[in-house]
Each structure stands twice: as structure tokens, then as C-alpha cells.
């Protein structure tokens, strides 16, 4: 048996990998191909490759090597920071089940490349980044690793052969028949393993797994046929379709383009083309990516910062923004708000339009699966994939399950980080321990598995909130994790704070090495000061004044009472051996995301934090 396992989730939209020691029961460390030293990135990398090379007269691209992956590749391409002849390829996995000898076009549509060559270059890049991170704490080579590649449940045998051949060419193993060095793991099985003890893993338990990704939504049913190690057998035919988040993104991008055209009517055609091809447009779409998943309710607004429009080459004014809103609302307020600002506030009615078709398709497929005879006695529904983080998708699935099981006997289980669940669970596929209370094929009771725990906090971590420029010295530190205490995998702490929305404030994510920190508020003078890991100033717009109708039908403002006070939610969660921090406003807007690689694993070498 190899000493380490590295799992790779090369998805249509995004990519991530994980690694762990084969004998370590604790959760794996998570990495992404475009992570840089001392840089904290939350979320997977876009499946995008910037490849150097040249294009022949036949339009076939002849690669010489990868220049960049993910966000870095997109930024460099958008800013023109690329070698002569280089091409950008993205979302290339979407077609790999069609023909293993297929070609795919570059983003510019000016070049074509053999799909096998793209996969080999992508896997080589991910392999090198993973090994680089692992060698920070271990002497590791590719031969010391069991490589796990995740594949969708609908993956055909030719496509599996394609993946194994690409991995062999990328240097993962020396021969295509090395079953110890290279393992393919079905994504639904990895999804169930990621939930650990949240699933019972009893013999003959049935799970319906809904994998909501960027390109597709895959729905499949499984039955537990072994608890030691956990093993699943597929029940019936899988279903699904091209209903992933990219379809919602396209609707937003089309809406955004139409909105920009309406507010930048004075800009010339070249200025508009320059903007839509720039990193500014990319940043707006990234803000949308975060915001659509950050909503805590389908009834909340979604706020997108469009201040990029005020700069060159468009130089849009707030007056032009207001006129654009008026046109999009057709005289009402149903779809978009943000008067007098550069914020584009998407109302729930508009968001429902974006999500409607995909949720309808997902609901229909889930309902059809729930009616199949082999799913009678269903134990749980598992939702994974980045699109599962959407409250609209969650609401659609929960409604289907509630209609079928109105007594609440079947729970919908969603991991804390659904976009990372598959790559996290796949790392346990090779050495998956038996679940607590597991029963073997002969009915014998098996020993309980080690719990996903043993992660000890090296310091205390928490926040300090203070007014900006108000002369208020932060007097208290509120810890979420305490130094020296052990925490289970996926442990999460959430706290709410009430702030003045019309006063800018600074939120500081801080650590403290003092052993005297206690739960609750700590005076800074008692604990000897803090180290700020991330400090950011926020200015949250106050909510609009509530208006009521007067006797003549005129709108008259209602006096403000507590409207200038809003609530923010701070979430600290343990993912792998990293501490992740997320701050949301009461509308669900994600105001801050931070990964803190400052936790250590008890009895193990120093934790892998970031590449």
C-alpha cells in the first residue's frame, strides 16, 4: 500500500485536489491548481488552461506546455499577459464522454487541440502543484502516492479508459494496469464518504445522491453493500441533464451585458468590447458567483458591486445607473434596486427567473427517481456539488422530498462545503474506515471507525469589530476556536452581531497565542494583544426607509426606528486542517472570505496550509 493518497476532482467548471496520509483518519488537506504561496483562496479553481504553443495552417494547436491554470489563466488572458500564440481552453471536460479522440476549440475559436493532449497537460499541472505542496512537510514522489480520479456516475467504459490513459501519460503511474497507483472513484460514492458519520452506513441503506455541478446535474441511487470498508452498489439507471450552474451564469451574463449597454449608451463599440474582454468584467462575474451561493434565503436580495463601470473605458455615472434600473424595472421595483449607487441589487423575482428553468428540471428528475420501486425505503438524500450551495436548488429538492415523505423520515444532507465534498470524500476512498456501529456482510458487529477529529488549534481565533475613524479602540476579542482544544472535521461556529449600517466599520479576523483566552469577550489588556490575519473595512448601505400610503395616495416616509441597525453573521468552519472564515450581511451578501492555514494536526507533521 502506498503511503499517501491524492484525489483529483477535474470538473467541467472547476478543479480541486486533496491529499492525506493513508493511515491518517483525519480529513484531507484541500488544494487548488492556482493556489500560490501564502495566498488564501477559498473555493475550487476554474477548469481553465492557458497553454503555450503555436497554431498551424490546419488550425490544429501544437502545445509546448502549460502557462497557467484557473483564475491566473483567466486573468492573464483577459489582460493580454500571454506568450505569442498561446491559447486559452476552458470547460473542456464537458465533451470528453462523446469521443475519446475528439478535439476542442480554444476560447478565441481560432485553434483546435486534441482533447487527450489537454487532459494530459491539465493532469501534469495538477500533479506538480499537489506534490509541491506535499513536499513542504514530507519527502514525496509520484510513486509514493495512490492517485484517485473522480468520474461521474454516467461515465462510459471508453471514457474511463480515456482518463486512465491520460493519467498514465501525465506520469501518475508507469503502466495503465497499476490498480494500486491509480484508482477511479465514482463521484456519488465520494460524496457519501465526505459525509462520514452523518450517514449510518447500515447494510441495505439506500441513498439518493444529487450532484449539482457547473455543467450537469447527475442523480443516482445507491445501496450499502458493505460497511467495512464502506461500499455502494448502484440501483437502477442514473438520470440528470445539462442543468448546472453555468446555465444560470449565462442568464446573468446576458442580463449584465444588456444592463451595461443601457447605462453606457455614450460609450463606443470598441470601448464596450474592451470592457467585456477585461479583467473588470471577469471580477463582476466572480462577484456574482460568490453572491448567488451566498444567499441565505430565496427571499433575499443579491447585491453585485458594479463600480468597475465608473472607470475607463466606460466611465458610467450614478445617474446613468439609475436610468438603467428604471428601464429594467419597467417603471416598477420588482427586478433591480440600488438607487443612487453602483450596486446592482437583484430582487428575488429576478433571481427566480434566473433559476426557474434549472430548478424545474432538477425537481422533475428528483421526483421521478423518488417514485422508482427500488427506492422504496430510502434512507437519505445527499446533495453535493457547487450548485447545491444555492438556496434555490436546495429549496426545490427539499420540496420534492417533503412531498414524497411528508412525515420528515428522509433527511436531505448537504455537506458544509458542497463544492469540495467530492474531492474530500475521494481521499477516503482508498482507506475508508468503517462507520460507527457498522455491520459486516455476515451480520457481525464491526469496530467503530475513528472519528474525523484530532485537529488541535495552535492558537485562539476570533474577530474584533470596531468603528472606522470613530476613535473607538477595540477592547474585546471574541474567540471562535480556543488554543489547545481539539475540534472535529467540519466543526462550525456561527455568531451574529448587530452593527450600525450607516457607520463604516472594520472587521478584523485575528489570532491570539495567549493561553489565557476564554470563551466570550476577552479584554485585550488581559490577553496580551492580537495578530490580525485579515482586516477589512466595510460600509453597508442602510436599508431603504419604509414608506406608507397617505390619504391621497401619496407615499410618505415612515420614521426610522431600528432600520439603521443590521445584523451580520460570522461563520468559522474547519475544512481539512484549515480554518475558513465567512462574513455575511443580513441579505446574504458575502462580505469577507478567508482561509487561515494555522491549525496543526495532533501527532502529525506541521499542517499543509497552502501552496
TrEMBL record:
What is the recorded name of this protein? Heat shock protein 70-putative
Q: Which SUPFAM superfamilies match?
A: Actin-like ATPase domain
Q: Which residues form a coiled coil?
A: none
Protein keywords:
Stress response
Is Transmembrane included in the keywords of this UniProt record? no
- Which gene is transcribed and translated to give this protein? Hsp
Amino acid at each position: 500500500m502506498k503511503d499517501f493518497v491524492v484525489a483529483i476532482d477535474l470538473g467541467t467548471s472547476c478543479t480541486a485536489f486533496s491529499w492525506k496520509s493513508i493511515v491518517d483518519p483525519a480529513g484531507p488537506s484541500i488544494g487548488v491548481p492556482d493556489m500560490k504561496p501564502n495566498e488564501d483562496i477559498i473555493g475550487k479553481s476554474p477548469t481553465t488552461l492557458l497553454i503555450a504553443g503555436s497554431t498551424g495552417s490546419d488550425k490544429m494547436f501544437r502545445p509546448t506546455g502549460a502557462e497557467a491554470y484557473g483564475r491566473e489563466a483567466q486573468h492573464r488572458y483577459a489582460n493580454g499577459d500571454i506568450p505569442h500564440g498561446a491559447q486559452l481552453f476552458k470547460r473542456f471536460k464537458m465533451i470528453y464522454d462523446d469521443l475519446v479522440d475528439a478535439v476542442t476549440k480554444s476560447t478565441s475559436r481560432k485553434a483546435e487541440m486534441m482533447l487527450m493532449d489537454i487532459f494530459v497537460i491539465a493532469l501534469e499541472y495538477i500533479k506538480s502543484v499537489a506534490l509541491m505542496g506535499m513536499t513542504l512537510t514530507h519527502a514525496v514522489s509520484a510513486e509514493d502516492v495512490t492517485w484517485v480520479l473522480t468520474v461521474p456516475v454516467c461515465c462510459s467504459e471508453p471514457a474511463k479508459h480515456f482518463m486512465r490513459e491520460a493519467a498514465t501519460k501525465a506520469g501518475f503511474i508507469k503502466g495503465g494496469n497499476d490498480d494500486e497507483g491509480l484508482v477511479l472513484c465514482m463521484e456519488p460514492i465520494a460524496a457519501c464518504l465526505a459525509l462520514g458519520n452523518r450517514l449510518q452506513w447500515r447494510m441495505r441503506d439506500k441513498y439518493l445522491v444529487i450532484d449539482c455541478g457547473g455543467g450537469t446535474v447527475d442523480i443516482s441511487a445507491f445501496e450499502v453493500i458493505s460497511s467495512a470498508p464502506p461500499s455502494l452498489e448502484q440501483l437502477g439507471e442514473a438520470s440528470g441533464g445539462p442543468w448546472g450552474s453555468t446555465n444560470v451564469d449565462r442568464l446573468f451574463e446576458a442580463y449584465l451585458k444588456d444592463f451595461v449597454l443601457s447605462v453606457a449608451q455614450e460609450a463606443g463599440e470598441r470601448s464596450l468590447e474592451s470592457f467585456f474582454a477585461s479583467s473588470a468584467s471577469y471580477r463582476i462575474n466572480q462577484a456574482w458567483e460568490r453572491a448567488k451561493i451566498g444567499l441565505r434565503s430565496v427571499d433575499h436580495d443579491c447585491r453585485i458591486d458594479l463600480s468597475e463601470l465608473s472607470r475607463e473605458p466606460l466611465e458610467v455615472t450614478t445617474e446613468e445607473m439609475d436610468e438603467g434600473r428604471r428601464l429594467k424595472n419597467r417603471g416598477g421595483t420588482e427586478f433591480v434596486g440600488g438607487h443612487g449607487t453602483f450596486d446592482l441589487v437583484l430582487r428575488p423575482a429576478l433571481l427566480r427567473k434566473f433559476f426557474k428553468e434549472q430548478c424545474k428540471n432538477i425537481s422533475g428528475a428528483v421526483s421521478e427517481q423518488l417514485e422508482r420501486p427500488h427506492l422504496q425505503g430510502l434512507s437519505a438524500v445527499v446533495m453535493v456539488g457547487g450548485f447545491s450551495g444555492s438556496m434555490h436548488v436546495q429549496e426545490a429538492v427539499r420540496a420534492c422530498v417533503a412531498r414524497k415523505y411528508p412525515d420528515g423520515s428522509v433527511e436531505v444532507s448537504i455537506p458544509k462545503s458542497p463544492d469540495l465534498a467530492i474531492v474530500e470524500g475521494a481521499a477516503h476512498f482508498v482507506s475508508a474506515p468503517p462507520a460507527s456501529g457498522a455491520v459486516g456482510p455476515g451480520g457481525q458487529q464491526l469496530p467503530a471507525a475513528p472519528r474525523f477529529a484530532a485537529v488541535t488549534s495552535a492558537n485562539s481565533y476570533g474577530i474584533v469589530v470596531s468603528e472606522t475613524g470613530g476613535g473607538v479602540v477595540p477592547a474585546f476579542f471574541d474567540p471562535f476556536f480556543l488554543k489547545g482544544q481539539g475540534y472535529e472535521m467540519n466543526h462550525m461556529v456561527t455568531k451574529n452581531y448587530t452593527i450600525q449600517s450607516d457607520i463604516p466599520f472594520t472587521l478584523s479576523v485575528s489570532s491570539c497565542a495567549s493561553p489565557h483566552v476564554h470563551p466570550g469577550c476577552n479584554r485585550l489588556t488581559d490577553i496580551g494583544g492580537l495578530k490580525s490575519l485579515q482586516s477589512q473595512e466595510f460600509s453597508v448601505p442602510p436599508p431603504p426607509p419604509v414608506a406608507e400610503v397617505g390619504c391621497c395616495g401619496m407615499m410618505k416616509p415612515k420614521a426610522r426606528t431600528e432600520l439603521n441597525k443590521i445584523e451580520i453573521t460570522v461563520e468559522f468552519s474547519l475544512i481539512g486542517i484549515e480554518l475558513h472564515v465567512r462574513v455575511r450581511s443580513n441579505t446574504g451578501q458575502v462580505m469577507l472570505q478567508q482561509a487561515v492555514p494555522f491549525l496543526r494536526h495532533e501527532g502529525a507533521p506541521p499542517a499543509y496550509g497552502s501552496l
